[in-house]
Write a structure and sequence with these properties.
This protein has about 675 residues and is an alpha/beta fold. Helices cover about 40% and strands about 20% of the residues. The chain has 21 helices and 21 strands. The strands form five sheets. A seven-stranded mixed sheet has the order 15-14-11-10-9-8-17. Strand 2, helix 2 and strand 3 (about 80-90) form a beta-alpha-beta unit. Helix 7 (about 315-335) packs across helix 8 (about 350-375), helix 17 packs across helix 19 (about 600-615) and helix 18 (about 585-595) packs across helix 21 (about 650-670).
């Protein structure tokens, strides 16, 4: 048996936080060494942080990244460690991984396949390294091998795939496997999306099986730069078997997952595979030889068992809760805000935001304990050693209910009850006098009285906008972060008041649709995340019909009456924005599924969606930053670009109605 101990270390880094990032790397290396590992895989671009954006083009950044790498070299005594950083070569910047062994840089491997889709813009800053090419990088008179490299330690060969390299058809690992590589390391910065971890598991397992090798995968952890979430998934597989997988969504600065691998077993797999052909013609120029030898260890029993919630039938609910709460925590501490303020209306959206803030505290205490939470939020008044979750929530979360004459006791009571149950501070403000003042000014400017018959939208919006200054004042007075409560369904059709309910520095639920949020709130009421539990007080929220409560009560305003059924809205949005279908194509699809509605109803709703979508792009451009959760994101800065001014799908809508009329006439004729 040829047993080697390997480790994948996930890190919660911050762009350009040089000393903090360096400290996390050092602590992770020390923890891996304590686990007996001799090979440590760190995430992609871990020195600088992955989300540095255009700062990646700064020569000063390159110099500081290299200086940090030099300071890290002594920490690698007796180890092989992969360290990610940008590398400038002849005026061109590459996304590189330094392979450091026992205090020496053996070589630097640049990424071959850049992530340039979705929220990733790597081709803006980096160039892809060509397959099979090698060069020499000279820094301060010292030459370093640079390029498509593998590394040999005695009879052991080691190669790398850097994040996106593993997601393409022509994987570097495929070519490396023909050299007989024993170990493949994958330093990654792979953003979270619902269900994505299962895809990662497949390529890690398939890589280890097809390459006849050990495969080590290490991802980033947490909310690194504001929008993208990293779940901190780490995996170690050998010959098609998953040996270890780290816990995701931890609140730590780092986590280390280690396993003992038997290289003789992967070589046996290679020997038994009749299709395997060794590449004898491969150039020796891409093989870097070292006299370092990995210590052989005594095999240990692998007691790997995936976290219980990972096997849940409610996986999307669990992932949503854990991803957003971790992101809120990181946004809170990295922005150095002293807490959150939520304008709690008593409806579903603001309730969801408040609950996520409260559960953030519960998950943090479960993951890192009171001492760890106090350390990470050390700019906030010290927490008592005996502080309860409710005590901490009260310190971090303020909820404000702002009533007008159109507000009901139902929503007030629901908001107050929820805030008290989760432990938040609660305030009720009466804003009718302020609203009336604005209405008088409007009437003075227009030279007439304002009425619901003639000024409906203006009268609704002034109420929502009047709520904004007071919650901003509360946020400023307490040094807190004001959270916007708009969801993705509202963003799609502009069903939100700019500078009203869109006010805030962060919009935690703008990446998720209303239908899912309502399902999630019911799940939170009845089940809740594993290890934390449910919140029955949400029943007062869940029994309500969603309403903005901006029109007089006798008008019985509801969101779906203003728009359309939310499940239908989400279906249209998905087809139009994610799948890029035109109105007629969507109508045909809906007609087959939503048979309870007439063709005229469906046509009207499709038209309404496209008209509202087109005229409200300017609102989406102004939304506060939101978290990326799936491929239906509408954030124009990172995912879904659309012109602010456009033709508004006029021709496409007219074509849809023409087809509907012709089909109707044919139906009448056939009768």
């Amino acid at each position: 048996m040829k047993n080697i101990r390997v480790a994948a270390a996930v890190l919660n880094q911050t762009p350009l936080a040089w000393r903090e990032n360096e400290r996390n790397i050092i602590q992770a290396i020390e923890a891996a060494k304590a686990e007996g590992a001799s090979i440590v895989c760190l995430p992609e671009l871990c020195i600088t942080g992955y989300g540095c954006e255009d700062a990646f083009l700064s020569p000063g950044l390159h110099r500081e990244a290299w200086a940090t790498l030099m300071r890290l070299l002594p920490q690698t005594a007796g180890l092989l460690v992969t360290v990610g950083l940008p590398i400038a070569y002849r005026g061109v910047v590459f996304n590189g991984v330094a392979v450091v062994v026992d205090g020496e840089i053996l070589g630097i491997v640049p990424k071959q396949n850049l992530a340039g889709d979705g929220i990733h813009y790597e081709p803006r800053w980096f160039k892809p390294w060509p397959v099979g090419k090698q060069a020499v990088l000279e820094i301060e008179g010292t030459p370093y091998p640079l390029g498509d490299l593998v590394f040999r330690f005695g009879d052991i060969l080691l190669g790398l795939e850097i994040c996106e390299d593993a997601w393409v058809a022509d994987r570097p690992g495929t070519r490396q496997s023909r050299l007989g590589v024993d170990i493949v390391l994958n330093p990654s910065a792979s953003h979270f999306a619902f269900g994505k971890q299962e895809i990662r598991r497949r390529f890690v397992l398939e890589g280890s099986r097809a390459f006849h090798a050990t495969y080590v995968y290490a991802n980033l952890l947490g909310n690194e730069a504001g929008r993208a979430i990293y779940d901190g998934g780490s995996m170690i597989a050998s010959a098609g078997t998953l040996l270890a997988e780290g816990e995701r969504f931890a609140f730590d600065d780092f986590r280390v997952t280690a396993a003992t691998v038997d290289l003789d077993l992967t070589r046996l797999s290679r020997a038994q595979n009749q299709a395997f052909r060794l590449d004898f013609d491969a150039t020796r120029e891409n093989v870097i030889v070292s006299d370092f030898r990995f210590p052989t260890v005594i095999p240990q029993p692998q007691l790997f068992e995936r976290a219980g919630w990972e096997r849940s039938d409610d996986l999307k609910m669990e992932e949503f809760t854990r991803a957003v709460t971790l992101s809120l925590f990181d946004y809170l501490r990295k922005s150095r805000s002293r807490g959150f303020v939520v304008s709690l209306s008593g409806g579903a959206d603001s309730a969801a935001v408040a609950v996520l803030c409260a559960y953030m505290v519960k998950f943090a205490l479960q993951s890192i304990g009171l001492r760890g939470l106090a350390r990470k939020l050390n700019y906030i008044e010290d927490f008592s050693k005996t502080a309860s979750p409710a005590d901490i929530i009260a310190k971090l979360l303020i909820c404000v209910y702002q009533a007008t004459q159109n507000s009901s006791d139902t929503t007030h009571d629901a908001a107050k009850s929820l805030a008290e149950t989760i432990g938040a501070r609660f305030h009720r403000l009466e804003i009718d006098e302020l609203v009336e003042g604005y209405m008088k000014m409007g009437a003075q400017m227009m030279g007439r009285e304002l009425t619901w018959e003639t000024d409906d939208i203006a009268l609704q919006n002034i109420q929502a906008r009047t709520r904004s200054p007071s919650v901003w004042l509360m946020a400023n007075l307490t040094g807190s972060l004001l959270l916007s409560t708009s969801n993705r369904s509202e963003a799609a059709v502009g069903y939100a008041t700019m500078d009203g309910d869109t006010s805030g520095g962060l919009s935690p639920i703008a990446g998720i649709d209303k239908a899912f949020l309502r399902q999630w709130l019911t799940w939170m009421e009845e089940t809740g995340p594993a290890g934390i539990g449910c919140l029955p007080a949400l029943s007062a929220i869940n029994v309500q019909t969603p309403t903005a409560e901006l029109r007089p009560p006798e008008q019985h305003q509801t969101d779906e009456a203003d728009l359309m059924p939310y499940d239908l809205l989400d279906a249209i949005e998905r087809a139009a924005i994610r799948d890029k279908q035109i109105p007629l194509e969507i109508f045909v699809r809906l007609r087959e599924v939503y048979t309870q509605y007439t063709e005229e109803q469906l046509g009207n709703w499709v038209e309404r969606f496209f008209r509202l979508w087109s005229r409200n792009q300017w609102k989406r451009e102004r939304y506060a930053p939101s978290f990326h959760l799936d491929d239906e994101n509408l954030d124009p800065k990172t995912w879904c670009r659309f012109p602010i001014l456009s033709g508004g799908f006029e021709w496409e809508i007219s074509e849809m109605w023409r087809e509907i009329r012709e089909a109707s006439e044919e139906g009448e004729t056939s009768k």
